[in-house]
Amino acid sequence: MRHLLSTSELSRDAAIDLLDISEDMAAVADRENKKLPTLRGKTVVNLFFEDSTRTRISFEAAAKRLSADVINFSAKGSSVSKGESLKDTAQTLSAMGADAVVIRHGASGAPAVLAASGWIDAGIINAGDGTHEHPTQALLDAFTMRRRLHGAGSRGKGLDGVSVTIVGDIVHSRVARSNVWLLKTLGAEVRLVAPATLLPVAVHTWPVTVDYDLDHALGESAPDVIMMLRIQQERMNQAFFPNPREYSNVWGLSNARWIGLPATTLVMHPGPMNRGLEISSAAADSPQSTILEQVANGVSVRMATLYTVLTGNREVHA
Amino acid sequence: MSAPRFLIRGAQIGSGSATDILTQGNVIAAIGSGLDSAGAEIIDAHGLIALPGLVDLHTHLREPGYEQSETVLSGTQAAAIGGFTSVFAMANTNPVADTAGVVEQVLALGEAAGYATVRPIGAVTQGLEGMHLAELGAMASSRAQVRVFSDDGKCVSDPLLMRRALEYVKSFNGVIAQHAQEPRLTEDAQMSEGEVSARLGLAGWPAVAEEAIIARDVLLAEHVKSRLHVCHLSTAGSVEVIRWAKARGINVTAEVTPHHLLLSEDRAETYDARFKVNPPLRRREDVLALREALADGTIDIVATDHAPHPSESKECEWGAAAFGMIGLESALSVVQESMVETGLFTWDDVARVLSITPARIGGLASHGQMLAVGAPAEITLVDPHDRQVFTTDRLAGQSHNSPYLGIDLPGRVMWTIHQGYATVAGAKLIATDIIAAQAEEVRRG
């Protein structure tokens, strides 16, 4: 795997390989010495055009556990307002000898542009681009589901037949897109629940079922996993929904809705959460909640991604 | 009486049979087989097709104000190499072409360059801001004799202002060329809204934002009995609206760009910003509907929307890139590929949509006449049998933001004759100083 730009380019075998390597990496975290020498001498650049402390420190921890040298390059603001173009930034990093670039950018497709440009020879890892994708988030979500559902017997398995309901601002969500493609590849059944304003008009072309009504969706059959997405309150100013209260009443995972779910339904959230808006505290802090595991698993999945991109592991076919 | 200039031997005029064409001064003096050269320069045109010099109703020459992208000189050189002998220059320069002074300046720059007749388009509203009418009358009565008015790049979205503009230009037989884009429905829009935009996470530009404005405008044109021209149709729905309006007798004409006849939205999948354009590339179904509409006359003309940008405006992330692609140098090849090679068009049809009708819409009497004795010597000779990968070698303008680089395209303009002199000979551009001198000579008479 030369780059990781989108989960849509991962075959089932490649995705399962990545999740299995993540298991190996997670095992390292349980050892007294958490550090592996694997990427000694390699340079990983965290190129963040948007603030995201969580994702950046997760990648940083992952790279350091593999003994890579880490450079954090915060280029906040768009390339235009900052005055330096993506091209110049990439060529600068190339001149510094970056082996992998972990890029977070506000513009959809910026990692793909970097990977295709010829400006830099490094492996490119998409750490979230605009409203496009966030592949390592989807991988860590899948990893978390697989561990909860299959425990020690996770290796080699997909998520066949697992029902996953994703609720919230789908149209603006890179997490939702990456999850839809990856979950489909791994055999899960995905349902999206949101007001029509927060779904792409072409959502019927996606391999999912759609429901505008959360109570109806949960009433039909309780999902194995419910994933709540962060809602941005500014959206109400663009007429996506009337106000946070109405959103919360109709599409939030309230206490009442959470209590109605079976104890086996996993509650997920990519963070950061708006407690009381899209998710109640009781749901977020419940035993079914995987929210902190998602953070821990993020490091393992990112170690696996860096390892695969930087060592050109031939067993992983993108 | 001027001397014979060119004897074009064996060219096929449009869809007709091969013949000779003799030019004298800046007119066609004789047509027939076995003409006597009488001292004229002989052009061996066997196998070539002769078309009336091409006319582009929609070009961005960028001067004044954006000379890093294009100038009147470089843009008309691009025009010449593409077989165009006249271009209509859009008003979104800096300063905006919203006064007699600016349009006369652009006209004069075109005359001095000499590669093509440059007809300035005047802005509809001051500064393209959509608030107050520009001095349409002053531009119409200026030396530039502006007849086409457009805020292209922006839509005249205020319905009352659009109504007034349509009414006002009736006094000098003008036409409003509308860039149909409902602004609220396209805020931050990056590409056509649909399956591909949903997947790529790019904000969508819905077809309805174009169709709703066209529907409104044809009804306004009917109400005030004026003349409307719709720029760059991009959707199947827009075709239906125009078809309905024409059936109703509304005085409307419509254009399509070469790129909307060939390329579809899936080109955005690599986030290569050369394919970022406004209106955006649409679905394959739209491309096919536009071809059919051009073939059946619902769409009247092809116009390039040649939009040069410097490389830094395209070598970047999609969201930061400028909208637009160049098109003058490739237009004829793209029309051949999408319309002639598909059997939808004869070469007479090509002459109609790329020369005769655009000249008529723009009120340009000196161009767009069938090649006949007494017609102006505005002639394009194209080799339809040529087929090769389109490269930057084919570009003559200042910018390289062509979506066709690396794509196999048919046809090559071998000669372009403008005002009786060659601007392109053997597919090569004639030097700037020679053309300027020839143009000067024509002006002196």
From TrEMBL, chain A:
Aspartate/ornithine carbamoyltransferase Asp/Orn-binding domain boundaries: 160-308
Domain of life: Bacteria
Positions bound to carbamoyl phosphate: 54-55, 104, 134, 137, 271-272
Gene Ontology terms describing biological process: 'de novo' pyrimidine nucleobase biosynthetic process; 'de novo' UMP biosynthetic process; amino acid metabolic process
Reaction equations catalysed: carbamoyl phosphate + L-aspartate = N-carbamoyl-L-aspartate + phosphate + H(+)
Keyword Isomerase belongs to the record: no
Function: Catalyzes the condensation of carbamoyl phosphate and aspartate to form carbamoyl aspartate and inorganic phosphate, the committed step in the de novo pyrimidine nucleotide biosynthesis pathway.
Protein name per the record: Aspartate carbamoyltransferase
Organism: Alpinimonas psychrophila
UniProtKB/TrEMBL annotation, chain B:
UniProt cofactor(s): Zn(2+)
GO molecular function: allantoinase activity; dihydroorotase activity; zinc ion binding
E.C. number(s) listed in UniProt: 3.5.2.3
UniProt cofactor note: Binds 2 Zn(2+) ions per subunit.
Residues forming the catalytic site: 305
Enzyme class, broadest EC rank: hydrolase
Keywords linked to the UniProt accession: Hydrolase, Metal-binding, Pyrimidine biosynthesis, Zinc
CDD domains in the cross-refs: DHOase_IIa (cd01317)
Reaction equations catalysed: (S)-dihydroorotate + H2O = N-carbamoyl-L-aspartate + H(+)
Pathway assigned in UniProt: Pyrimidine metabolism; UMP biosynthesis via de novo pathway; (S)-dihydroorotate from bicarbonate: step 3/3
Binding site for Zn(2+) 2: 152, 179, 232
Binding positions for substrate per the UniProt entry: 60-62, 92, 278, 309, 323-324
NCBIfam families, alphabetized: PRK09357.1-1, pyrC_multi
Family as reported in the entry's similarity comment: Belongs to the metallo-dependent hydrolases superfamily. DHOase family. Class I DHOase subfamily.
Name by which UniProt lists this protein: Dihydroorotase
Record gene name: pyrC
